[in-house]
Amino acid sequence: MGGMLAGTRVAMLGGDAREVILLEELLRQGAEVRVAGLGDLPEREGCTSYEDPLAAVQGARVIILPVPGVNTKGMIHAPRARQPLYFTREVAGAIPAGTPVLVGVARAYLKDMAAERGWQLVETAEMDEMAILNSIPTAEGAIMLAMQELPITLHGSEAFVLGLGRTGFTLARMLAGVGARVTVIDRGAADRARAYAEGWPAFTFTELAAIVGQADVIFNTVPAPVLTEALLARTKPGVLIIDLASDPGGTDFTAAAALKRRAMLAPGLPGKVAPRTAGQILARLYPTLILKCLERL
């Protein structure tokens, strides 16, 4: 079979509906894919399924792990698997130095192994193209959660967006599109200027305490402790906080519970609210990324 990945052996360990769509694209591009922990799949030329990750990685030139990656105990995100899937030291030992290992988010467990073994560890969630594309289903999912949880419409609400990065900008624009009164909080002068150009009031985090009591809903995108107990105490009792930052988020959830503020951690929305779109994003980016990684060998 032809395609840009013809003859390239790829191991896919774990995953969800997103990786199923990625698998289809890899096969279409001619890759030989060895899968572990992706559940029951129809028989396809070029695809071999294994129960054991160790068997799947044998001889693979590229390793693909799920977007959520591997947790601190070595468990691979594999909701479709028949049993828990682990990225053990034995599995790691079967992956040669220099091998590209693609994962959305790499925690210390995987980073330490990669450094020790000399792999090309690529964290795709932080790549600009992927992050910008994923910001669309993330923003839609965040707005869906707000609509479900708020007793008022977003139209006319005071919506605060903390952090005007790739997700924050898309979210702020969508909120403004449904008629919310958007306020942006960002530490960067350039990002605040960009918010001003869009017609959104923008403030620094040091100014947040003085205005946070106005918010009906707060969307946090900053993966740092920005919504502290002191700030939460200044919010109105009916405020809704949706934290989109990677686990553990940027909200003091213990303090929020004590203050009776509704706060939810909602990372990874693309795979939950729009898995097909999220899978298509992987399918769009990964084949070319694999080729680039292999060219470095």
UniProtKB/TrEMBL annotation:
InterPro entries: D-isomer_DH_NAD-bd (IPR006140), DpaA_N (IPR031629), NAD(P)-bd_dom_sf (IPR036291). Residues 10-124 form the Dipicolinate synthase subunit A N-terminal domain. Keywords: Oxidoreductase. Its EC number is 1.3.1.-. Residues 152-245 form the D-isomer specific 2-hydroxyacid dehydrogenase NAD-binding domain. Signal peptide: none annotated. The keyword Membrane does not apply. Pfam families: 2-Hacid_dh_C (PF02826), DpaA_N (PF16924). This is Dipicolinate synthase subunit A. It comes from Moorella mulderi DSM 14980.
